[in-house]
């Protein structure tokens, strides 16, 4: 039989993780079924199925395929549940006593490896959606959980959300554009900072896509609103899920058609053009005292790194 493992989601912004190597590398603390069995009996508990963990060494075509079967012994199956207990009490349930409670969960998420960050992103987004959609957004009636936690259906048989094609009962994803604006000369980029950023950190501008708006239109609008800079050509580069609570960051490069900066202080506190060499020094040498680049796990970092790569021999 499958040995289920539980990843605890966040009703109290809780992640249980193990500290490896002095805090530079952390991973999820896995809760087996017996450790959380009593939580599953509570009526308010939401349990969602996340999926079966990938086999580390997939069999060749000539070998047995039983290793890849979802029900194969020792194949970890990931679930997520919400939890009302305090973090300290939840940590006592974990067999691995190296777990800790992060004081800055949003930043600590960036310290997970790619696979485990994906687990947290999926769990946090879906659980956050469940916490907001206990009642039908169409008629206000209670909803029930279906399809392993990836759908909620209205319990009112007369509700129009049950008729035809509707998307009000599926987890939402909010598109956000994040863009590196490149100076017309090609050798400077526009970065901004918010007051909540660490000292000297500047990042790419970003904003939500509005209804009826294309990605390119959203990039141009957000850049002009926040910095006063006008943008022409826009090119998609890559994307990144960001479960705070349910965003999809759509990364782009954008070429500026104007250079004068007029900051909207309600959005950001500062924006500047940074020469490429200054960005290179900060990213690769840590040598610049006035600029800190976002960490490598962020899409902002990757957009900046991509720009440096296409404009140099690095």
UniProtKB/TrEMBL annotation:
Catalyses: NADPH + H2O = reduced beta-nicotinamide D-ribonucleotide + adenosine 2',5'-bisphosphate + 2 H(+); NAD(+) + H2O = beta-nicotinamide D-ribonucleotide + AMP + 2 H(+); a 5'-end NAD(+)-phospho-ribonucleoside in mRNA + H2O = a 5'-end phospho-adenosine-phospho-ribonucleoside in mRNA + beta-nicotinamide D-ribonucleotide + 2 H(+); NADH + H2O = reduced beta-nicotinamide D-ribonucleotide + AMP + 2 H(+)
Task: Quote the PROSITE patterns the UniProt record gives.
Answer: NUDIX (PS51462), NUDIX_BOX (PS00893)
List the GO terms this entry assigns under cellular component, sorted alphabetically.
cytosol; peroxisome
What one GO molecular function would you report for this record? metal ion binding
The EC number of this protein is 3.6.1.22
Q: Which family does it belong to?
A: Belongs to the Nudix hydrolase family. NudC subfamily.
> What name appears for this protein in its UniProt entry?
NAD(+) diphosphatase
């Amino acid at each position: 039989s499958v040995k289920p493992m539980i990843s605890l989601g966040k009703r109290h912004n809780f992640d249980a993780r193990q500290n490896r190597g002095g805090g530079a590398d952390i991973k999820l603390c896995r809760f087996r079924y017996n450790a959380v069995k009593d939580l599953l009996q509570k009526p308010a508990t939401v349990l969602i199925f996340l999926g079966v963990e990938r086999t580390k060494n997939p069999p060749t075509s000539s070998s047995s395929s039983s290793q890849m079967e979802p029900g194969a012994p020792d194949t970890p199956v990931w679930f997520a549940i919400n939890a009302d207990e305090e973090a300290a009490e939840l940590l006592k349930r974990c067999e691995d006593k190296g777990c800790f409670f992060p004081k800055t969960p949003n930043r600590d998420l960036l310290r997970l490896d790619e696979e485990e960050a994906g687990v947290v992103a999926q769990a946090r987004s879906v659980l956050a959606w469940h916490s907001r959609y206990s009642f039908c957004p169409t008629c206000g009636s209670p909803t029930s959980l279906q399809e392993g936690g990836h759908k909620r259906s209205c319990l009112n048989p007369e509700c129009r959300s049950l008729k035809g094609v509707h998307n009000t009962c599926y987890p939402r994803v909010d598109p956000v554009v994040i863009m590196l604006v490149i100076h017309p000369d090609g050798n400077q980029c526009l970065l901004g900072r918010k007051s909540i950023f660490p000292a000297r950190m500047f990042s790419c501008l970003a904003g939500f896509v509005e209804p009826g708006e294309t990605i390119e239109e959203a990039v141009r609008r957000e850049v002009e609103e926040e910095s006063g800079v006008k943008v022409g050509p826009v090119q998609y580069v890559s994307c990144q899920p960001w479960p705070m609570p349910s965003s999809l960051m759509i990364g782009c490069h954008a070429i500026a058609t104007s250079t004068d900066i007029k900051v909207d202080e309600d959005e950001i506190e500062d924006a500047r053009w940074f020469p490429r060499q200054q960005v290179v020094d900060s990213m690769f040498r840590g040598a610049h005292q006035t600029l800190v680049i976002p960490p490598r796990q962020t899409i902002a970092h990757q957009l900046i790194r991509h720009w440096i790569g296409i404009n140099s021999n690095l």
